[in-house]
Structure formats: C-alpha cells, structure tokens
Amino acid sequence: MPPRIFTLLVAPAVLLLALFFGLPLIAVIVDAVSDGLGAFARVIAMPTFWPSLLGSTVLTLAASTLSLVVGVAVALHLARMEERRRTLLAFVIALPLTFSGLIVAYGFILTYGRAGLVTQLLALLGTDSAILGKALFTPVGLAFASSYYLIPRVVMGVLPVFVNFDRAQLEVAQSLGATPAQAFRQIMLPQLAAPIASSLCLIAAVVFGAYGTALALVGTRLEILPLQLYSLISETGSDFPAAAALALLITAACSSIMTAGAWFGSRHEKHL
User: Fold this and answer.
1) Alpha-carbon distance values, 104 to 62, 67, 80, 145, 207 (Å)
2) What whole-number distance in Å separates Cα of residue 197 and Cα of residue 106?
3) Which domain range does residue 127 map to?
4) Of 119, 138, 137, whose CA–CA distance to 129 is shortest?
5) Per-residue pLDDT tens for 10-28?
6) How far apart are CA 72 and CA 162, in angstroms?
7) SS3 125
8) In angstroms, rounded to a whole number, what is the distance separating the alpha carbons of residues 142 and 97?
9) Which of 112, 124, 163, 218 can bridge 222 by disulfide, Cβ–Cβ 3.0-4.6 Å?
C-alpha cells in the first residue's frame, strides 16, 4: 500500500484519538502537576486511599474471576451450537453492553433489592428478604451486579476463537483414553490461554475503573478508588489537582492491567 494512501486511511483514527483521548489526558496531567508532586502526595496520604485500593483490588479479583469462569463456560456451549442459534444467542448476550451502569444498577435493585421480584419470591420459601436485599448493597452484591456487563465481554472476546478451534484434537485425545476434562485442560486450554488472559485483563481493567453501577448501588459508602475520585470532583470536593492525580493513578493501573494481558498474549504465542 502506498504511504500516501496509508496516511489517509489512518488519519481519521489518529485525529479521533488525539481529540478524545490525547487532549483530555494532557489536560489532566497539567492539572495534576500544577503544584509539582504535591497532589500525588496528598492522594497517597488520604486515610481512604489504601483501603480504597484494597477494596478495588478485591472487587476486581472477585468480579473478573466470576465473569471469566461463567463467560468461558457460556462461550464453550455456544461454540458447539449450529451457526444460526449461536448468532441469535450471541446477540441476546451482547445486549447488556448497550446499557449504562445506572440502568444496570436500577435493574438489579428492582430484581434483587429488598422489594425486588426475586427477593420476594425467595421470601415465600422462607428466606429472610431483609438479609437478601441488603446483600445487593455490599461488595459481594456489587461484584455480582458488575458481572452482568462483564460476562458478555468475555463471551464476545473468546467465542470466535472457540468456534474456530480444531476440535479434532480433542477427539483424538479422548480416543487415546483422555477424559473430556483432561482433553480440555491439556489440549484446548493451553492453546486458548492467550485470548482468555486478554479477556480477563480487559474485564479487570473495566471493573477497576468503573463507578456508575457502584455509585447507584452503594453511593460513596464503599471504599473503592473510582468512588473516591467521584468524591473529589463532586460538589463537596475542591482539590482538583488531587482529583487529577488520582485519575492518573487509576488510568495507570488500568493501562498496566491491559499491558499485562497483551504481554502475556504475545509471549504465549511465541511459545506455541
């Protein structure tokens, strides 16, 4: 391809990236370093910073692990279906990706809250609706709600790879005496480790930086970094350099997670 044609093709993407990522990022960096490194020092010195970092880490591990396990299982099941049914079900599964975090939170409140449909149905069986309804507004409930929009990301990420996988390898392994679980673990999983790891890092980065669902469910009571950032930039906050510094720290953490997934994928492909 001639260099001139290549430049014309990539120019819109470069312009879009510069306007909607580069310029905002530069503005945040300028604000964060407006008083040297003092803003970063104030963020780290906040009494809520380290508990929030721990809370974000625990939430990320719980939600991403649950979503990965369920998403991989769903993708494996879809990969065995005929194409028309698989396309239809994949479309339905992808629908949660079109909803905002506030809509997801509101839906879970109506379904699993204290007066939610599922909670009231379980109450008819003798369960305590107060306990069940309260669980939704805890870190466990937030991880459960976050999985609603993380699982489709896993399914959409690994499904094409599972569909194109040569299943004759599994049949050969089973004909030689391997169980289906052994064939999956020793034949299929090593070859698909890279896309699975990439999906895990993607959803981990998403849940680490997300705040909409958490804000709607628990307000600012839960100690996670995105909600601490919201507190710094809300009407009660006034230290905008510290907010910018915290935003950069969250961005760096999410970028590191994504970089780790890309590094693992490239390293794994070299060894195959």
Assistant:
1) 18, 16, 30, 7, 14
2) 31
3) 62-222
4) 119
5) 899 999 999 998 999 999 9
6) 9
7) coil
8) 17
9) 218
Element (H, E) at 66: helix 49-79
When the pLDDT of each residue in the chain is averaged and rounded to a whole number, the result is 86
State the pLDDT confidence band at 96, using cuts at 50, 70 and 90. confident
Structural domain includes residue 233: no
How many structural domains are present in the chain?
1
Q: Does the pLDDT value for residue 249 go beyond 90? A: yes
* Amino acid at position 237, single letter: G
pLDDT reported for residue 184: 83
Look at residues 184, 164, 163, 197 and name the one whose alpha carbon lies nearest to residue 269: 197
CATH number at residue 118: 1.10.3720.10
CB count within 10 Å of CB 238 equals: 9
pLDDT digits (tens, 9 = 90+) for 30-41: 999 988 888 899
Q: What is the mean pLDDT of residues 105-130?
A: 82
For residue 74, how many C-alpha atoms fall within 13 Å in the half-sphere facing its CB?
21
CA distance 67 to 77: 15
How many angstroms separate the Cα of 5 from the Cα of each of 13, 14, 16, 17, 175? Answer: 14, 14, 18, 19, 53
DSSP state of 178: -
